[in-house]
Amino acid sequence: MGGLEGNRKVGRLAPVRRTSTVDLIAERLREAVVDGSLPPGTVLGEAELAYQLGVSRGPLREAMQRLTAEGLLVIPRRRGLAVKTMTPEDVRDIHWLRATIEPELGRRLLTLPAADRRAVLAELGTEVKRMQRALRRDDARALGDAYLDFHRVLASWGGSVRLARMLGTLLIETRLCTFSMFEHFEVHRDLVPEHVAFVEALAADDGERFGILVRAHLEAEVRRLLAEPEDAKEDDTDRLLAETPDEPQPLDRLDLPEGL
Amino acid sequence: MGGLEGNRKVGRLAPVRRTSTVDLIAERLREAVVDGSLPPGTVLGEAELAYQLGVSRGPLREAMQRLTAEGLLVIPRRRGLAVKTMTPEDVRDIHWLRATIEPELGRRLLTLPAADRRAVLAELGTEVKRMQRALRRDDARALGDAYLDFHRVLASWGGSVRLARMLGTLLIETRLCTFSMFEHFEVHRDLVPEHVAFVEALAADDGERFGILVRAHLEAEVRRLLAEPEDAKEDDTDRLLAETPDEPQPLDRLDLPEGL
DNA sequence: TATTGTAAGTTTGTCGACAATCTGATTATC
DNA sequence: GATAATCAGATTGTCGACAAACTTACAATA
Known about the structure:
2 copies of one chain form a homodimer.
Chain A: H1 21-34, E1 43-44, H2 46-53, H3 57-70, E2 73-74, E3 81-83, H4 88-109, H5 114-136, H6 140-156, H7 161-181, H8 191-203, H9 207-225, H10 236-241
Antiparallel strand pairs in A: 1-3, 2-3
Chain A binds a DNA duplex (30 and 30 nucleotides) through residues 20-22, 45-47, 55-59, 61, 77-80.
């Protein structure tokens, strides 16, 4: 009788979460992208990468396709894989999209039952505290991670699987924007008070104010990221990546994700 | 001098669009999904499908991963690939998302320069005419195709690559909703006047009205699709697919696309 | 009769190998 | 001296094959 307790409702076992190798590789690659071990413009050979991951090239190539569909990787012809370098246009696009999505998420959050709403606010509060601790330690990396998790919490409670997935990708792309524009993290002091204000607005049931604050934050981020538009990263890796033409692509049909 | 004319600006040749095999396969699969040759719940073996497409299993598996990331396919463990069957919850999610996105697109369209705006209206008008012709012929298939293209035009002029890509996927998913709920197309008479009204609202610069109309249309679509929630498609293919549990999945972390 | 155990068959998941292609540099020619 | 052509090297794209895992059917037992 001791030991395996808790299976009171016998028909309701939690399903076993078995994850495939491709999933593991994809997750590993995403981690590497967000933590900066694969900076934008990195061009890696498949054989080398597969060896590092301890898998064969087959599953790796499958995972690459997954990341490509998410827009985090580009696959230049016969040149392995490259982490996407975000252009100023990408920066604007990503942040504009987030500025459209996140206020909507806030609005949806406020329609949740009271218990759930308390739970969300608690989770958000936890992340803000993480941000505060990171700021005190001047740990830009930890600050950025907590920032991502804060917005991931927002996504996960939005009630839409698709939107959550999309915002999750957008957040990784946001991180790529930072890496594409600057060489490394920098501590961003305004971030914490801004997010405290976000939580306060939500706690006060003021979805309108939340939206305004979020939009202001994101616009400020765009300005900060695009402050010096020209001198940002002009090394050779970018030119290799530029094989994918960003400007002259014919605008007749950009309907579906196709390698890009 | 005859022959190859038109290269006046010599430095501005259109880049050669070379498409990889994986791209071709992925596009082919998407076509098959939208035209109904791969109905929701279809479980196909890799070898069989690869043979039909005339390729090896390698590239096919890579394309599968691409479609999986888009949410059109699910990959049950060791059971090949299955076209996603949309649940009522999916139907609501997809249409709610579209109801959030498309009004925003309309608003953005109205900020375009006059010339572009005329071009959009022209393209939209063309699609509406296609819808009208299809309706006169009682061709539900053609009507549905024109419907998709109408909204694709909307997406392509929205000024956001990411949003365009996302709406493109959402539209295919919309088609999957139809296939998941009904056995086949049905001619939908209200569709044409509704879309005429959309174009009129845009032509009148009334983004507000456009948004209201679009939301109304999408809500009506949800009601129509979920009219008979129980008797819709209860064959064995669905149960096979149900290996991916829709209800009892632990809701702790739904942050990133992982197979699902 | 229902349930469990066993076994065969089929299919996936993974790996290794081959060939086509691209890159980069070196050489020859105008 | 600069441009074009050639050649070697390396890497991707694709295919075939093997082993593990899962499914399904059948048989045995309680």
